[in-house]
Amino acid sequence: MSVFQVTLNNTAQGLLDINPVTGLPFATSHQREVYINGPHRINRLLKDGQQFTDSNYYKRYVAAPLGTATAETAFLTIVSDDGSVWNDYDQTANTYPLVYNLTVDNGTTYADNVADILTDTGGYAVYTQVTNQENHDIKMRINGVAIVDLAGDTTQIFNHGDLSINLLEFDNSASGAVTTTVQVLLSVLSVSNS
Known about the structure:
Blueprint lengths: L1 E5 L26 E5 L5 E5 L3 E4 L21 E5 L14 E10 L9 E2 L1 H5 L3 E8 L5 E5 L3 E5 L3 E5 L9 E4 L8 E10 L5
Antiparallel strand pairs: 1-4, 1-5, 2-3, 6-13, 7-12, 8-11, 8-13, 9-10, 9-12
């Protein structure tokens, strides 16, 4: 998710709200707001100066080179960019990579070793690769429900369409004295708030 700011006082579009005392425009327009459609055809009311967090669908209203709008048509600026892409025609292409490297100490349980994709990103993984990098078996719980064995020195892959993953937890309570390292590579779907 990226953070955008509404900038309706674009000098290339003309100015409103001139201060009668100074003859200069106000810092933010008190009479300018606009409704725009989000990627799910939901109207969003944007007021001048407002900040909001959403997918990079809204880069189309940001001036190039960060967005695709011209200086005359841009009315958003980027405060922080998550670097993800947005594809109008293939929603499954709206993904970005995420990596977790977890040290799963001996004697720890699911609550101690968590990759909470939904909380961290607001989306879910459509591709997941989990690698147990040590020669020691542990257990993996998927989405808080399904428990599978993750053998030592192995990789478990969930391809696009297999399973949408929002939470991974690891249990090493039966290991004795062995600590293992788990690497989780994800392709997270960029979910829009509007």
